[in-house]
Amino acid sequence: NNGWTGTFDDLPLNKAVGTAIAYTVEEAVVPAGYARKITGSAASGYKITNSYAPSTTSVSVTKAWDDADNQDGLRPASITVQLYADGKAVKGKTLELSKANNWTGTFDGLPERKAGTAIAYTVEEAVVPAGYTRKITGSAASGYTITNSYAPVKAGVSVTKVWEDNDNRDGMRPASVTIQLYADGVAVPGKTLELGENNDWTGTFFDLPMNNAGTAIVYTVAETPEPAIYVPIVSGDAINGFVVTNIVPEILPATGDNGYVFPQTLIPVLLGILLLSLLLIVRRKKRFD
User: Fold this and answer.
1) Would you put residue 273 in left (φ > 0), alpha (ψ -120 to 50) or beta?
2) Which CATH architecture group holds 56-149?
C-alpha cells in the first residue's frame, strides 16, 4: 500500500555535544527462506533487498517398448516427449529419447511453484508411432514411463502328410510321423507336429512370428526321423501349406484292377528271360529249316 518505501522524519543530526549521529537500518524480521542485503546510506537513503531462490525440481521420463523386441521393425529411431505444466505445454521443453540415451531423459531446473502453488507437471508423447498404443504411468516425483505397445502379426503354417506306398502294401508305414518346423534354416525349439490317422495326417503350427527385426522369416519343415525305406519329398510353402510325401522308390505304380505292383529290380531279369526265349526260338527254327 506504500510501494514498499518509507521515511524516518524529524531525526536530530547531532548528539548533544555536537557530534553527528550515524543512522543505519535493519529489517526487524527477515522473511523465512529469504536472504537480506542492505545498500545505500542515511544521506542517499537505504535499500533493503530480500532475495529468494525459488526451489526447483526435475521430471524424468523413460520410454518402454512392448513390441516383441521390434519383431516387425516398426519401432522408430527416436520419439519426442513434451512437458506440460498445469495442463499447458511448456514452450521449449521437449526431450528426444532414443537408443543412444537408453530411451531415458530428464527435464531439469523446473520451478516447483507458481504464485505459491505447486505446479503439476505431466508429459505427453508428441507423436505416437503408427501401429502402437501409448500408456503413461508414474508421476512427476517418481518419474514417468511412456510405454508403447504393439501386437506383432502372427502366422500359421499347415502341413499335410501324403503316402505313396500302394496303400501300405508292405506294412512299413508308421502309425505317426514327426514334423519339425524351421525358421530361416534353424530348427525352432518345441515346434513339432505329430501327424497320424487320428488327425488325418495334417496339422498346423500356430502363433508364429512373421518377422524378425523387420525381416520376413522363411519357414520350412522336415520329417524327423525319416521312416525306413521311405524317401520324404517336401513341396509347397509356408503361405499355402507344406505337403510331405513319402514314397518307396522301388515300388512301381499299381497296374490292373487288382492293384498289383512288382519291384523294379525284376525288370532286368524279365528282359533277360524274354531275350533268352527269343534266342531259343530262333535256334529251333534254324534246326528244322
Assistant:
1) alpha
2) Sandwich (2.60)
